[in-house]
Structures are given as C-alpha cells and as structure tokens.
Amino acid sequence: MCSGSAEIRSKDFYNTGGEEHLSSATLEMKVHMKLLKFCILLIAATALLSCIDPSGVKMKIEQKDATSQNLLFVTTYDHLYGFDQNSFEQKVKINFDRRNIGYGAKTPDGRIILADRGRTGGGWGSRLLVLDQNFNIIKEIETNPMPMDPVLFGNYIFVGCASFVNDGPKRNSIEIFDASTYEKVKEIPVEFDIERPEYSEDNENVYIAVTNLRKDKFPYIISVNKTNLEVNQISYFEPSYNIQRYILKTIDSVLLASSYSVPSGVCINILDITNNQAIASVKLDTLTSLATSNMTFLLTPTLIDGKLHFPMKSYKPPYTRIVTLSFPELELLEIKTPDHSYDPWSTDYYYLDDTLLVTYGQSSGPNYGLNLISMPSGDIVKHAPLD
Length: 387
Prior knowledge:
By secondary structure, this protein is mainly beta. Helix content is 8%, strand content 44%. Strands 23, 24, 25, 26 and 27 form a five-stranded antiparallel sheet that branches. Strand 20 and strand 21 (267-272) form a beta hairpin. The longest helix is centred in the first third of the chain and has 26 residues, at 24-49. Residues 1-22 and 43-54 have low confidence and may be disordered.
C-alpha cells in the first residue's frame, strides 16, 4: 500500500525499460491530448452536418463566387450550377449526394426551391429543399413521393408529384405550399405527374395540363384561382386527336395548348378562357413526318409580331428546328433549322422574356451546357459550358 496520493503504474512506451511512475504532469498532458482530439472530431462533425439537411441530404459547395441574386440556374442530376445572367460566367457549383435534384424556382428574395426526387435507400425522394441566397439549406418541405420541378406563382409553390413509382397507395397530386411559411395549403388529386411546361398563368388563375401517359384518357386542364385556390376543370379540347400530353401558354385571354410528342401527332388548340370556347384547332401532320426519332418534342412557344415560334427538339440530328405558325389562325408558315444546334432536355428551359430562351443542352448533343437562344432566329447568342 502506498501512503499519500495513489500510485499509477503504466508501461513505458518509449522503451526505456521496466515500468515507470507517471507524473501528474504526464497524466495531465494525456488528458489534454484526448480533449484536443475530441474537439477536432467535434469541429469536423459540425462542418459535415452544416452541409446536411435534417433528413440527411449531403451537399458540397464546390464553387461560390456570388449569391443567388442575378444568377440563372440549371441542375444536372446531382449538381446545381449558377451563372451570371449578364456575363454568363459560372459562379456557383454545388454537388449533392444523390441523383435527380431538380431546379424549380427562385423567390424574389433569392431563396432557391429544389425538388429532391432522388433515390435514397431504394425509394424515391419526397421533399422540396429550400436554400437561402448563400446556398445554405434552410428548410425541407415534405411532399408526396417523386416531386417534379416546383413552380412559383405569387406566394405559392406548386409541385406535381408522381407517386406511381413507389410501393403503397398511389397519390399522384398537385401540392400547393405557402412560399413564406412552407405550409401545405392544398392538395389536388390528378391523373399523373406535372412538369414545368404544363403550367401557365394569367392575372387571376394558374392553368395546369394534367397528363396521362397510360393513354387511357385524354389530358385535361384545370384552373386554380390565385386568390382562393378554387379549382375548376376545363372541358376536353375537341377534337383531341388522342393526345396524352399538353404544354400550355397563356396569351391575354387565350390559352394555347400544344401536344408534346411529335411522332404521335401534333395538335394545337386555342381556347378563349373567358367563356371556355374553342377558337382554333389544327393537327400538323407535316411535323410528324419531320420527326427524326420517337423522342421529338415541341417546346413552349413564344409570340413575336403576331407569330407563334415553337422550338422543336429531337435526340437525333437535326437536334433543333424552329416551327412558325400564324396566330390565332394556326397556319404553318415556316420550319427552319438554326445554324447552331442545341439539344435541350425536354423540360430544362425557360424564357427570360419573349425573345430570349434559356436552355440546358444535354451531354449527348452539341453545345453541352447553358445556352441563351435568340428567338425567333433560334441562334445561340451566349453559351456557357459546364465544367
């Protein structure tokens, strides 16, 4: 037995022979080293968790040279890119730990709304991610499984969900969330998923084309009042030509509905939304004969000088054509191939204004990256490759 302080014996790790008594200073140093290691691990864990949302989405900011204001965005499966809308220089690149992250919308204060529909552990994503203007995840919004690209109308976020891909009850729906509180304010059951080109709006309503790729029903259109969110269904267009999908564009008091897939037959209908009466309808068999593959699509048109100009894309050359029709007569005026081809995804595009179209050209085609297209010529005026 020892008197006084307890004796602590340990093996000499420096091989000086035998066992040595550890001094209190040596013991204190070992305690400090353990505390230092703990602090380093804690700092590392905190840094990691700062890039994970509450459900475990990991993201790595690989480039951040600007805030979200004045940037154009595009997503490529697992990356979010931001480009200066004037210089077209790449300013932001963020990597996510899953595929199928879809860019949807940017709020006036710079928040970014993304759809997480990526597979995690065998299932599909079921939420929206909200990033602040400095690209921190500040909120996740639970949705039905597989939300498509969200769209912002006023202070409401609209998102179509396609839960047919999941086990369990099917809940295909349009969900509407308050963009300030993120609370779900309405859920509208529908036949199938909804993508960005199938929305349009006027001063009072949001119009949504409900697709049906099962081909057992015609697509239909619903209107959602922006004030009270009252839902009404617009009658089927007649003749419908057995089309399963529409893209929409609102022009004053007129709603333009164009079929999506060219090989199955292109039909274009114009509806007076003040009285729900058809104004014009046409089927363009000429476009069907020009389709270079089953993956040939009409994109949303723009109206310039009384003419409708539709970009038409294909997965085989020629990748891009511009189809011009008179409005509202829908007489086919011109089909031309631009000098510079680009191959946008069928949903990754949007108009900055009537004459400027932003597209994301996919990797299998030319001009991979972000393209700024001048309409109606279809020429590329700016191009930004993705690194």
